[in-house]
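Fig. S4 source data, part A: sequence.
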Amino acid sequence: MHFSAKKDKTYLSIMGLLSLFIFVSLILPLITNTDWTVQTAVIRCVIFGGSIAFVSWFILSMSYTFHENHLLVKGAFIQKQIPYDHITNVRHIDGISEMLSGFQLLTAKKGLEISYNSGVVGSVKISPQDEEAFLAELKKREPHVNIVS
């Protein structure tokens, strides 16, 4: 079963600000200053386009997939396979501080933190679009998981 990531205004605002910062850093100097070469303009535009493409790819590729023996959470080139029997508990998260800290593959202020007993970090924050269906599927695959509200 496959779940897409929920995208909320807070996350999209942060990504919009990041895109604006990249624009101001790379493109605005080309507009305000006429003392540049064509090579400089091309390089700055390529870097700008690549940066925006990377941010968009990261946002649009965020997903969570239940496989036979593990949960796969991924976004862009980052992916983590979590065996069901390694998942210890799941707790609800809410807030920007939760959203901006820890190992996260989420695109919303509200989501879930899955703790597991393997790996370096030991937890991942996610934001499935249909949280209730996600939790029901997880509970079906790992009945011993502790879900904390």
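Fig. S4 source data, part B ends here. The beta strands are 2-4, 63-66, 70-75, 78-83, 87-94, 104-105, 110-116, 123-126, 146-148.
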